[in-house]
Here is the input.
Amino acid sequence: MLKESGFNPGPIDGEFGPGTESALMAFQKSKGLLDDGIAGPRTHSALIPENPIEVVSILPAATVSIVARMFPHTPVANIETYLPFVLNGLEQQGLVDQGMVLVALATIRAETEGFRPISEFRSRFNTSPDGHPFDLYDFREDLGNQGPPDGERFKGRGFIQLTGRDNYVVHGNVIEEDLLEQPDLANEPDIASRLLASFLASKEIRIKKELLEGDLKGARRLVNGGSHGLERFTSAFAIGRELLPDTMTA
Here is the structure.
């Protein structure tokens, strides 16, 4: 099948050798898939689109009791209230494998340990000593901000702390919500969950590459831009990896 698709693995010898692996990885790259050299459901479905294989979802296994163990300092009532929204958002974006589900939950642990969508608090990182709230964000070109009041208007919100005019526009468009005019919608449970999933989906391949290398700090950096909350992120991920089943999704 690889050869028919233009990716020659060499002579057929009954072995999944280096030639097959290289051809498979090249095919995966061509399709925008994670190039891990594993012929999982997504790769198989791309090779044979007329006979796709369904990706096994671990979302049903992400129960309140299991997630509560990943969030040892969080009221269980919050998890019971908001977990269904989060899982629904992940399902809509096809983020149903162990790695991405754990990254999503660990991100929530790092950003809002209370497992509820919140607005960013004022701090020395976003507000100058004599300035108005979030003035250090006003002219952040990397966030697409254009000056006051963009800093405060597009401060971090939701489960992932979505920040900046560009992110509000891009991911608002993905989930079909006008966040430019109504940025506070980013704290609504359903919308916050879909924004979390949209943001992670936009970086899915890069996140999975970091996970393949075992680099949780790198995965956290792709989401946060730094290492804020890394200890909580790694703790939640490690606990979840022991509790949630692994599936092949490449």
Summary: The chain has three domains: 1-54, 59-118+194-243, 119-187. The mean pLDDT is 94. The longest helix spans residues 76-92.
